[in-house]
Amino acid sequence: MNNKILIFLCFVSLVFTQCTKKNADMMSDTGISEMKDNTVTNAKTWRSAAPSAGPARNIELGEYSSFDLDNGLKVIVVENHKLPRVSYQISLNNDALVEGDMAGYVSMAGDQMSNGTKNRTKAQIDEAIDFIGASLNTSSGGIFGSSLTKHQGKLLDVMTDVLYNPIFPQAEFDKAKTQTLSGLASAKTDPSAIGSNVSNIVNYGANHPYGEVQTEETVNNITLDKVKEFYNTYYKPNNAYLIVVGDTNLKEVQDNVRKYFGNWKKGVIPSPKYEMPAFPTSTNVHFANKDGAVQSVIRITYPIEYQPGNPDAVPASVMNSILGGGIFSGRLMQNLREDKAYTYGARSQLSSDQLIGNFSASASVRNEVTDSSITEFLYEMRKMVTDGVTADDLQLAKNSLAGGFARSLESPQTIARFARNTYKYNLPKDYYNTYLSKLEAVSQSDFEAMAKKYIRAENANIIVVGSKDDVADKLKQFDADGKLDYYDAYGNKLVIDDSAMTVDISVEEIVSNYIEALGGKAKLMGVTSMKTVMVMNIMGQDAENVMMQKGNNKVKTVMSMGGNVMQETIYDGSIAFVSGMGGSQKITEGPQLESMKEQAEMFRHLRYATEKTMELKGIEDVNGEKAYKLSVVDKEGGKKSTQYFSMSTGYLLKVVSTQGEGEQLQVVTTELSEYKPVDGVMIAHKIDIIGAAPFPLNMKVTEVMVNKPMADTEFLIK
Q: What beta strand segments (E) does 281-341 contain?
């Protein structure tokens, strides 16, 4: 604290103390000590109780104006003159669509609109927007543009060019598909993304727009014509709101809107109808496996009829806030985090939607407490229905929601959103103005009614993403029929075949079959050197990785981009050397040295029988192929991995391993495919690594040289 402020506060404290003493002496001198005693008693009473809440006041929201164009465009104007900026947002009004075997085309259509028009290239659009310090974004839900008020004409000129004249360049479309596929490769190992996919499937069903899941197959199916079809069908003025916010006025907006949007042609908008999703009639556990996971993602969820503007909206939000809707004092947070220390955070939410809403409660917890966490989730949900709420807890939740609402009003975009919702969902005109009074009116009996209506601990989908071997069996107690439903990363239901436990094959035979598939033990043991060249794309740039192995005890890797060496590593049989843009170092011990020793071995599985402890864990699907699942542990050091071997070909298809520990722990998934013969040895020519970097590493083998001369000087450490 500033010294001058500290001295000032001490001075004020001293003066206050002296004044208090003087007043007390005066009262005593005039013979009114009884009044003094009463005053002290009343003061103590006043301090011991929180002040009672005053009556809720109506909120006077910022004024907005509105008007319609003849083409059906509804315009909402919110004036805000604090800054000389203005934004124009086109918001489409259509419901979500069933995209079928091209799931993902709707979002791709919106993203592609700003990639070029009949009048401007993508570069020219970006340059025009940057030149005036503006922003412009397109999406499947509409277009948003913002600029200084004095440049709004230039902004609208570019914005409407994008709106009316997109050309959807093929090259940009192809690039978007590649980027989307790369993102999906990462998402299919992300527990949260997997949990979301499974939740959508089990809550809504695959034939509902909210139950569709984007996959590599659906993305590959998307055509440019389908993207254009969405734009041509739904980007119509009678299917849109234009929301204008900022330093402007109604007359100026009317002139601009008629000039730039008056000739926008309306059209017929399809109105698809969807069946109501089936509500769960019991508790059902849905499990998605993630080998190597040390945590489980838990979601307890189910669909609910909860549309925007529902009369229950305010009391239901108070009820959910008490359960786990954002305030730290929520029961889920207090139980699972503060009391049990199972997780960093446990939350719940009630989500409204025009088609169908949902309830969800979630947390990420350690493997060993996954079942205990679900027990506590269900306990708190049941307690909501049976035990009610205290007056203090109810008031705390209402205060928190009131504070959040008040903070949201600081943004003029909030006023615009309120105005649009009032139009879109046909809400009463004072719906938001009276929010605080409706919030304050929520009673304990309202809480009880909302809990009984929306909390369904006995009729819920329990989704868990985690390590099947460590967690799954403990979860059967929560399923009504004692059987788990299994899903892949995209929410496709799987048939888990545990019959492998009784199949007449040993783990040694599985590894031996793999060695035979590669060319046989004698052939592999006769390989004394190997050079492998791989290429990959890293953030838009091509990179080359060259690995040289000799005698099973020397290895050298060189990664380069654009002809420039980015990193080089060498292991000479005893020590390692790493050099790159960040410097260089010698490594004489530790896990990094052990890892390089392993890399020096060309065919590690030749020594698995003596160095590894292996266990057959079942038969699972790997990219459509049945595979034996083996748990592999080093006899020394305890390093673990899970490996999948094709039942039909014997090839190794996937390896899941962990790297690091604690917060630095990484689960790395390596997939191998496209085995091809090289001098009598089968080599995987496609290697995909997920989890070792912030983005997937997709490597293609372009050259393999077996038993070619390789000088020892290649592995010389200087």
A: 284-289, 295-304
> Do strands 485-487 and 284-289 pair parallel, antiparallel, or not at all (unpaired)?
parallel
Q: What residues form DSSP beta bridges with 542?
A: 537
Indicate if the pLDDT at residue 29 is higher than 70: no
DSSP state of 149: G
Sign of CA dihedral 623, 628, 634, 638: positive
* Separation between Cα atoms, residue 210 and residue 187, nearest integer Å: 18
Residues in the chain: 718
Q: What is the pLDDT of residues 199-257, one digit of tens each?
A: 999 999 989 999 999 999 999 999 999 999 999 999 999 999 999 999 999 999 999 99
- For the four alpha carbons of 374, 375, 381 and 384, in that order, the dihedral sign comes to negative
Q: How far apart are the C-alpha atoms of 716 and 718, rounded to whole Å?
A: 6
Cβ proximity of 285 and 464 under 8 Å: yes
- Separation CA 470–CA 27 (nearest Å): 75
Give the CA-trace dihedral at 389, 395, 398, 400, to 10 degrees: -110
pLDDT confidence band for 135 (50 / 70 / 90): very high
C-alpha distances out from residue 543 to 370, 690, 694, 699, Å = 41, 17, 16, 9
d(CA 340, CA 368): 13
Give the global pTM. 0.82
The single residue listed with the structure tokens 């007043």 is 23
Which alpha helices (H) appear in 584-687, and where do they start and end? 591-600, 608-611
**365-394 tens-digit pLDDT:** 999 999 999 999 999 999 999 999 999 999
Nearest to 343 by CA among 324, 358, 359: 324
Check if the beta carbon of residue 654 is closer than 8 Å to that of residue 643: yes
As beta bridge partners, residue 302 has 359
> Mean pLDDT over residues 98-109, rounded?
95
Residue carrying the six token digits 């006041």: 57
